[in-house]
## 1
Amino acid sequence: MPDAPTRSDLGRLLPLRARHLHRLRLGRTLDVGCGVGRHLRNCGPGSVGVDHDARAVLTARAHGLAAYTTAEFEADPELGRPGAFDSLLVSHVLAHLDPAGGRHLLGRYLPAVRPGGRVVLITPQPAGYRADPTHVRFVDLPALRELAELAGLRIGRGYSHPLPEPAGRLVKYNEYVLVGIVP
């Protein structure tokens, strides 16, 4: 196995996340669990973020992003109207939820995605999972596929990003990505 990446190597991996989202061409995206907006700022025009953490939402707004708390999003029927978004992004959220919580989250936000729209689920690989003590469940590609199938999605592509999966044992920025399609 090659040497573990250095700190400078890891610094070069982070911009790959932004390029990755651009290449997916998600269009108007609902970013669930947007936090401070790291992914939201790389989503298409008209994209919206939602997060339960009011402080994170305020930070995202301070950067000019359209972010709402869960309560604000649910209180505004226009925000989550059926088919309002081209895509749903759930990045680094599912590892914080038990299986029932993950199913509930998808069930709550999927109606806001148009038929034929995409759902992108991203979870950390082993090194990233271990790096965050608030993670409650390791969610690999088979678990993402199962969740997507239970949600009624057509399964698209599942892959490791930005490096091959074995790197995820050492590189905390390596992620599992599953792209599903809303029927």
Note: Helices lie at 7-24, 54-62, 70-75, 99-109, 126-131, 141-150.
## 2
Amino acid sequence: MKRPERDWVREAVERLRREATRSADTHLLRLDLPAFPDIAFYFKDEAAHPTGSLKHRLARSLFLYALCNGRLREGQAVVDASSGSTAISEAWFARMLGLPFTAVMPACTAPRKIADVQALGGTCDLVDDPNDVHARAAWHAANGACHLDQFALAERATDWRGNNNIAESILRQMALEPDPEPAWIVCGAGTGGTSATIGRYLRYQGLSTRLCVAEPTGGAFAEGWRTRNPSVRASRGTVIEGIGRPRVEPGFLFDIVDAVVEVDDVESIAGAWWLEGWLGRRYGGSSGTNLAACLHIAADMQARGERGSIVSLLCDRGERYAQTLFDPKWLQARGLDPKAAHALLPPIPC
């Protein structure tokens, strides 16, 4: 018996597959710092995706997961809670599939991110308290929308065994490097999906590479990981969007993380500025957090006389933060002065 609703799902999945086939892999950039002669740094430029962040991979996976689990049908509204980058990617895929999309976002989200969602045809439902985004997204779902639910589903929607996930891509690109098996991979945690994918894949491939989560100081993941308590709350807020969650999200897996490095906001912002000086283009604050954590890991390796490679991520485009992290007046109004932290970073290599 012919089932028209299944025909639409089949075509939607094929559209997502074709998009993935058209998308070239993102670059892995090598950085050599004279201060660490025995350690090579690599940064995977996930901002090169069509929607400008590593969340492009996640958004595609979330749509596939919803389609293949029978949760998403033709013409249905789609909703998710997001501080910006995931919402932008989800709006892009929703437009591709001809579906209305609403992003539930904290009102303090960078204005450029809100504008990017709207430019892709999405609607932004802004809430004053960031802790309310989950409940608001659930309200939309109760009124008929398909909740993509990145925070609950990211770690299971991504195929961690391969299929060009971010871990497989990194290790394939490292194959011809002098130290092809990284000593460490460093990433931030928003949903926990990226750290779950990387940590699982390292074990699946039998590698000795360790996984470090870079976290804003006082973030819930850091305290939760130390105590193995999924109920802890963040002890401090952060201006670094996408990470530093106020609570431990269900997709964060404690046991596959080998270390958590906490980074103050001014260090993260200084790191983002430093990356602009190195690469000539801007990246967001979480990329600066990753850079700072990599330098902490490298210093520890150097103190132990270890050599090898460290791989991390450039998470999203810095143009989205022109009115926040790269705006001196915005920083001054919040008492943030990253100049001293920037001065402590290694000289930018020529």
Note: The chain has two domains: 5-51+160-343, 56-155.
